[in-house]
Amino acid sequence: MSTIKNKCTGRTIIRRFFSSTKRVLEDAVINGVSLHNADLENADLSEIILMYRDRREADNLRKRRDKNLGYTLCIPTLVRGNYIVADLPSAHLRGANLRGAYLILGDFTDADLRDTNLSQALLYGATLTNADLTNANCTKAKLERAKLGGADLRHANLEGAELNSAHLQGADLTNARLTEAKLNSAHLQGADLTNARLTEAELYGANLTWANLSGTNLEEAFLWKINLDEATLDRADFSGADLWDSSLRDVKAKHTIFELADLRMARLQGADLTNTNFRGATLYFAECKKANLSGADFYGANLENAYLDDATLTNANLQETNLSKAYLFGTNLTNANLTNANLEEANLTLASLKNANLSGADLYNANLELTRCSGMIIDDGEGNEYVLV
User: Fold this and answer.
1) pLDDT per residue over 305-323, tens digit each?
2) Is there a contact between 188 and 206 (Cβ–Cβ < 8 Å)?
3) Is 152 within 8 Å of 133 (Cβ atoms)?
4) Domain spans of the chain?
5) Residue 351: partners with Cβ closer than 8 Å, 6 or more residues away
6) Are 373 and 388 in contact (CB under 8 A)?
7) Are residues 217 and 194 in contact, defined by beta-carbon separation less than 8 angstroms?
């Protein structure tokens, strides 16, 4: 390997790497390196430290690591000390081993990182705009505040990765694995998460407006105050997910699963939720005005105090659903199954209950003013059913 040192800046520039097929720089310390458009395909750069500082400080960081104090403790020191990693835009790093590497604030714009091992790497604040990370291993990587806009992360493994406040606008995360990943306050506007796996992931306050989550698995995910406005959620799985106070206005969510999900105070105005599964879900004080819930399954769900004004619930299954004190002004419940539903003190003014089945339903103090009830099925409390004409 030949190098040249810039007398003005003191930066070392690597001109030629090892001639061998596998280039090994394990545990190396490189100060102020410029690797613009460098070819490091299949190189072993595990636990390398790339930054502007003297050797003594780099050695101190390594001692911290060797004492098992953890990578996280190094982050504040690096940021406060204004450490800047090597310049790596457009570099070819396909298949390289960067496991545990210190790459704080690094520039990987347009870099080729396909099949790269970035597990446990420190990439806090790094720039990976438009980088290709297809099939990359980023398990438990530290990517807080990283810039990944337009990045290709298809089939990438990001399990346990920390992406809090990361910028992923327009990123392609198709089939990516994000189980137990942390994406709190992340920016994912327009991102593609088709068939991605985010089970038990944290996305508190994340912004996913216009994102595509078709077929995405978000079982048991923590999604408080998430913004999914105008997102596509067709056939996504939110089973057991916590969506308290989240926004899902105008989403497209046909055949989506929200079974046992917590949607208290969620905002679903104008959403297309055709044939969606809400069995056992909690929608206390949820706002579903003008939502399309045709064919939706609410069996055993809690919609107490929910706002369903002008919503469409034709052919919906509301059997044993709690709709007490719900607002159903002008709601279309034609052919709905409300068997044993609790409609105590519900407001059904101008609603349509044509051909709906209310056998065993509790209508105590319900407001049925101007409600259309032709063909509605009721019973007398003794098992005898009657059809209203």
Assistant:
1) 999 999 999 999 999 999 9
2) yes
3) yes
4) 1-109
5) 328, 329, 330, 331, 332, 333, 371, 372
6) yes
7) no
> Can you tell me the distance from the alpha carbon of 167 to that of 188, in angstroms, rounded to the nearest whole number?
7
pLDDT digits (tens, 9 = 90+) for 182-199: 999 999 999 999 999 999
Token pair, residue 335, equals: 């052919």
| pLDDT tens column, 225-247 | 999 999 999 999 999 999 999 99
Q: pTM of the predicted model, to two decimals?
A: 0.83
> How many residues make up the chain in this entry?
389
Beta bridge partners of 268: none
Give, in degrees to the nearest 5, the angle at Cα 198 between 196 and 203.
Answer: 120
What count of other Cβ atoms lies within 10 Å of the Cβ of residue 220? 17
201 contacts: CB under 8 Å, gap ≥ 6: 178, 179, 180, 181, 182, 183, 218, 221, 222
